[in-house]
């Protein structure tokens, strides 16, 4: 093997030589492109300043400017492509590849060695020096054990014989470790990766993708892919590598803007933001449910998922029941039914006013709407209404264009205003009058801009009132609270999806047909009603939903198969697929074994064999002692790890602990709008820690008083599962039954005797 290693190092050196040649070449091309862009830009600025007093001059300048503009845009694009190439080559220079497969195709006497890395590389003679990890043949590396193997290509299933599989760890161009493996992707390198301490950003996992994860990443057939995976099983990692794979697989048809990921919180959004760029791809669009609803309900304060969690404890049983109904598919069906059967006289239209005067009266709008045949679809009728209103507005504007006020403005038009009104258009006027008429109309239209926008944005229809009307008819018990909220410009989370659904159905709006893929992480936090709405919005998208029902903080999880069935029905999927991930990679074996014992069906969870300390339960007698223990462990962990988190059940507890600790320790409380993790110790409630991981997690109080109920299992489980290397739990008094019921061998118990 020593000899082999030398040979492999020689190859690495050769490939790096080639990379360096290409780097130099690309650098030159990039410089050239950059200079060209600068010179075209300079030209463009000078042209834009050309004298524009005469009409002919103005026209010519305008056409030229357009041309220059296009040229600049094209140059910038070329420059960007070259810049991306430079980044890829620079990354490859450090780690050209991580895997090798030796294969022999049927009927071919020769065997071939292929090397696999984060991007492909050819030499001048079109020899593949490195295969991209997403190339069809690369799947053999992740999937196959030695012997006959199959892999999917655009031309169909292919067969080959896998003779050797070799893994490398290469850093700064030097092979640090390499070995042959018969398994999918062997444990040793994975162990190495997982042993490392946490980082501010999540890393890509392409060198160590596991077979089950690979199946998720490369699934191109399902329109609903549901992944149910235990905490730390690589669900988030799988989605991100899947996005990179899809972008590669459909390079000509798909771009990153056509992919949306719903992420649990802003910290998470940033945490994962480096993975795709590290694979040479642009990031997909990311949004939290809160942002999504807030953008669609402008002017209202949308209740966030976090506020929603925080108020759970205050809700009466009746309110909880109402909430459950509003979250159901049945409720969304009622919304649809209501919309379908709504008589035009019950439409909540409103007056459209301009400078205090009514331009369109509510009654007239209703009459107009009523004039369209009832057999048209709702959307059609509404769109016809809009067109008609615009037409009527055009007439008002045309009249206004000849008014003395506008004529007066025309007289005093500056060059700047002239160009602004001309915009991007290339106009030729045969007479002075024609020119005046054109600009008169432009000025009048500008004046009425807000009204045009109001009509385009459906402001002549009051969706909030309409939903109130629906509630009164369908769920009168919920009406008072809803209208009080609206009065204060607020809306409960559970009202958002049904309200928007109603608005969209009645106004034929809100749908994003250009989105091809929708990903939802932490899907256990979404209600089925929200799923119905998201399906409605992203009607053309394929769905990938990832979750862990055990991490549902405030609701009971469903079994995966049942969940798939209800989701497939809800989103009307044709090819649904369920994938389970049972192996947990995040935490040490000891932490995973502790967590899994907490769950009734935890047996299915498999711990990755990375050894560490047993979780520590530190039982003390009083609150003061608990605080002292907390200080002690936080201080110790801070000296040892990159990231330490004190995770609480809710925000008030986080704030209280901050007050207790901030004089002595570098602690920061994280809020919902925070995007970055602080250095030092992060204090945060569990719902903000969703999807994140920390080297050491400290839990403030796991006493029976704090966690008396089995219904709180999800919370404790999710908190514990954020720990990679160490987990410390302080308990003021007897620990929760969720812990005492476990095999005592699973954790270390440290007791401080009560103070006499
Ligand atoms: N194949 C792999 N190779 C290397 N690291 C991996 C692999 N799979 C998962 N990991 C690591 O395990 C940790 C957990 O992964 P990830 O966050 O994707 O899991 P998850 O299932 O989304 O977790 P959770 O639901 O608990 O938030 C991450 O640090 C990730 O990098």
Helices, strands, pairings?
Blueprint: H1 2-48, H2 55-94, E1 99-104, E2 112-117, E3 121-122, E4 128-132, H3 139-143, E5 147-153, E6 156-171, E7 174-180, H4 187-195, H5 211-217, E8 224-229, H6 235-249, E9 259-262, H7 266-271, H8 275-278, E10 285-287, H9 289-296, E11 301-302, H10 305-310, H11 317-326, H12 329-340, E12 352-354, E13 357-360, H13 362-371, H14 378-401, H15 404-411, H16 415-422, H17 432-447, H18 449-456, H19 463-474, H20 479-487, E14 490-491, H21 493-507, E15 517-520, H22 528-537, E16 542-547, H23 560-570, E17 576-581, E18 583-584, H24 589-598, E19 606-607, E20 616-620, H25 623-640, E21 644-648, H26 651-661, E22 667-669, E23 681-685, E24 694-699, H27 713-720, E25 723-732, H28 737-740, E26 748-751
Parallel strand pairs: 2-4, 8-16, 8-17, 9-10, 9-15, 11-14, 15-16, 18-19, 20-25, 20-26, 21-23, 21-24, 22-23, 24-25
Antiparallel strand pairs: 1-2, 1-6, 3-4, 5-6, 6-7, 12-13
Helix pairs in contact: 1-2, 5-6, 12-21, 12-22, 14-17, 14-18, 15-17, 19-20, 19-21, 21-22
The structure holds adenosine-5'-triphosphate.
InterPro entries: DExx_box_DNA_helicase_dom_sf (IPR013986), DNA_helicase_UvrD/REP (IPR000212), HelD_bacillota (IPR048228), P-loop_NTPase (IPR027417), UvrD-like_ATP-bd (IPR014016), UvrD-like_helicase_C (IPR027785)
Binding site for ATP: 229-236
Protein name: DNA helicase
Keywords:
756 residues, seven-stranded parallel sheet, binds adenosine-5'-triphosphate, alpha/beta
Architecture overview:
The chain is α/β, with parallel strands linked by helices and 756 residues long. It contains 28 helices and 26 strands. Strands 1, 2, 3, 4, 5, 6 and 7 form a seven-stranded mixed β-sheet that branches. A seven-stranded parallel β-sheet has the order 22-23-21-24-25-20-26, with helices on one face. The chain has a six-stranded parallel β-sheet with strand order 10-9-15-16-8-17, with helices on both faces. α1 (2-48) packs antiparallel against α2 and α12 crosses α22 (528-537). It is globular and about 90 Å long. The site of adenosine-5'-triphosphate (ATP) has 22 residues, from α4 and α6.
């Amino acid at each position: 093997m020593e000899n082999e290693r030398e040979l492999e190092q020689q190859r690495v050196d050769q490939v790096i030589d080639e990379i360096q040649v290409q780097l130099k070449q690309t650098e030159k091309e990039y410089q050239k492109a950059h200079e060209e862009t600068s010179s075209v830009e300079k030209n463009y600025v000078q042209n834009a300043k050309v004298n524009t007093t005469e009409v002919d001059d103005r026209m010519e300048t305008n056409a030229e400017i357009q041309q220059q503009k296009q040229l600049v845009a094209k140059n910038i694009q070329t420059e960007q492509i070259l810049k991306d190439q430079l980044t890829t080559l620079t990354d490859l220079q450090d780690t050209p590849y991580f895997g090798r497969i030796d294969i022999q195709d049927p009927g071919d006497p020769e065997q071939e060695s292929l090397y696999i890395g984060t991007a492909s590389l050819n030499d001048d003679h079109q020899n593949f020096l490195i295969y991209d990890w997403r190339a069809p043949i690369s799947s053999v590396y992740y999937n196959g054990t030695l012997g006959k193997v199959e892999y999917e290509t655009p031309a169909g299933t292919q067969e080959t014989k896998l003779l050797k599989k070799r893994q490398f760890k290469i850093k700064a161009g030097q092979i640090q470790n390499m070995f042959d493996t018969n398994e999918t992707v062997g444990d040793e390198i994975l162990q190495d990766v997982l042993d490392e301490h946490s980082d501010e950003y999540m890393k890509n996992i392409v060198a160590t993708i596991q077979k089950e994860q690979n199946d998720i990443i490369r699934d191109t057939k399902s329109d609903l892919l549901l992944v149910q995976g235990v905490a730390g099983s690589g669900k988030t990692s799988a989605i991100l590598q899947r996005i990179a794979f899809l972008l590669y697989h459909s390079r000509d048809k798909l771009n990153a803007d056509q992919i949306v990921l719903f992420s649990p919180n802003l910290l998470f959004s940033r945490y994962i933001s480096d993975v795709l760029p590290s694979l040479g791809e642009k990031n997909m669009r990311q949004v939290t449910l809160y942002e999504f609803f807030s953008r669609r309900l402008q002017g209202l304060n949308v209740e966030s998922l976090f506020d929603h969690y925080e108020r759970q404890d205050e809700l009466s049983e009746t309110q909880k029941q109402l909430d459950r109904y509003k979250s159901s598919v049945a409720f969304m069906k009622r919304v649809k039914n209501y919309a379908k059967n709504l008589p035009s006289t019950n439409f909540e239209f409103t007056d459209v006013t301009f400078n205090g005067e009514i331009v369109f009266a509510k009654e007239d709008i209703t009459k107009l709407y009523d004039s369209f045949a009832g057999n048209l679809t709702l959307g059609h009728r509404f769109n016809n209404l809009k067109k008609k209103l615009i037409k009527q507005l055009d007439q008002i504007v045309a009249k206004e264009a000849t008014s003395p006020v506008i004529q007066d403005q025309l007289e005093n038009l500056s060059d700047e205003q002239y160009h602004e009104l001309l915009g991007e258009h290339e106009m030729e006027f045969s007479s002075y009058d024609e020119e005046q008429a054109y600009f008169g109309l432009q000025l009048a239209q500008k004046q009425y801009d807000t009204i045009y926008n109001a009509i385009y944005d459906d402001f002549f229809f009051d969706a909030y009132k309409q939903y109130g009307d629906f509630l009164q008819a369908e769920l009168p018990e919920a009406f008072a609270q809803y209208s009080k909220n609206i009065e204060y410009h607020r809306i409960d989370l559970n009202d958002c999806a049904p309200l928007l659904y109603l608005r969209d159905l009645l106004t034929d709006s809100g749908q994003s047909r250009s989105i091809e893929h929708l990903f939802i992480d932490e899907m256990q936090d979404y209600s089925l009603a929200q799923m119905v709405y998201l399906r409605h919005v992203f009607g053309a998208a394929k769905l990938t939903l990832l979750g862990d029902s055990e991490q549902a903080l405030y609701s009971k999880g469903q079994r995966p198969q049942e969940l798939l069935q209800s989701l497939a029905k809800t989103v009307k999927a044709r090819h649904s697929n369920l994938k389970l991930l049972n192996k947990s990679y995040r935490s040490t074996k000891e932490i995973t074994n502790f967590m899994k014992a907490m769950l009734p069906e935890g047996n299915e969870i498999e711990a990755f064999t990375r050894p560490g300390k047993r979780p520590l339960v530190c039982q003390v007698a009083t609150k003061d002692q608990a605080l002292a223990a907390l200080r002690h462990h936080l201080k110790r962990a801070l000296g040892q790890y990159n990231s330490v988190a004190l995770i609480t059940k809710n925000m008030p507890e986080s704030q209280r602990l901050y007050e207790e600790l901030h004089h002595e320790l570098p602690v920061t409380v994280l809020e919902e709008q925070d995007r970055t993790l602080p250095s030092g110790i992060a204090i945060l409630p569990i719902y903000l820690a969703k999807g994140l991981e920390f080297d050491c997690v400290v839990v403030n109080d796991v006493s029976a008083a704090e966690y008396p109920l089995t219904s709180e299992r999800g919370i404790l489980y999710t908190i514990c599962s954020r720990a990679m290397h160490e987990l410390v739990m302080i308990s003021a008094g007897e620990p929760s039954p969720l812990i005492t019921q476990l095999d005592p061998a699973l954790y270390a118990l440290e007791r401080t005797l009560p103070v006499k």
